[in-house]
Amino acid sequence: MSLLRRFVLDLGSSRLCQRTKSLPLLVLSLFWITGCEYLPHNPDLALSDDELTALRQAAIPADEGILSRFHDHTFVGLGDYHFNEEFMSYATSLVVSDEFVSRAQTVIVEFGNAKFQPLLDSYIAGEQVSRGEMLNVLRGSVFFTAWMPDVYADFFTAVRKANLSRPAHLQIKVVLAEQAFDWQQVKDSEQWQQAASNKVDGFFATVEKVIKSQQKALLIFGAFHLLRIPEGVSKALPDNELTLASRLLRHYPGALYSVWPMAQPEIIEALQPLSGKRLIDAQQPPFSALRFIDLMPKARYRLGKIDSRNAPVSALFDAMLYVGPTQRRTLFPKAVIDERLWVDEMKRRVQLMGGPLESKFTQILAESEQFYR
Hints:
Rossmann fold, 373 residues, disordered N terminus, globular, 21 helices
């Protein structure tokens, strides 16, 4: 892909196309050829009324659809949408259900690293570990800022409560996917960058241990980790450039069934009046042929990195999870803001991260402090 085209794809917006009338003809021509036809637009479920009706009728209860996939897959992957709590709330209710433990009893999660596995094991087994101590599992993660909303700590607490009500052989095991990492030992950005760049390697190593132990497991990761790279693109890439999903499927074909969380308000409105939590098959027409970028234009940058801007949903994931109306709340909980020593430590860490991550943290922190005044 040319540098000019990549620049336009990554930085463009539909408003730029509206302004091109004032550009010289040559520049206008280059801009249209390289970018305008791909520039983002509002999400659109481009189906007729009849097709939408058929899609709604074909959607099945989410619990049934997800749990049934353990029959012929080792892993079912649920995509998390950071700061959009409805999806983690759903995952929590699924994991603590009796139906889940009858199919699988292991959950592998992105939010926490292996250094804190013994602490988490003790906590969810009901031992004398406080919720405050348990928070170190989340705070010790490489990308800890993503896991500050209460819903992630609530997940561990719900598992603990469920385990206390069940015999040992029916208790849920939670595996932390990150390799061991210690923020107290990080003194410069290079150390953090190394951990961040090796993150997916750690994920894969953790998942591979589970598959070799012949266990079935639910994966809960940021949704883009569970996005498949289309085969025509992925076969030319080395392991370290693949998503977790594509890397897993390269080494263990057929092992993973991946579920994308649908949070775009325009799409949710088009799907109503679906009742309850529903699963929509991404492999069946007419949904299968839709371009993912039309459902989620904000994904253009991620899709561009894997040369998949025009990929249909059927090439990227197996099903879409509908949980009803959702809301993205980019605020830290009040308890986090009130703990000033922890806020100072977060500031130290994000200064080492730098770039967009530091800028985003600073924005969320300022908005949170303003909100709780």
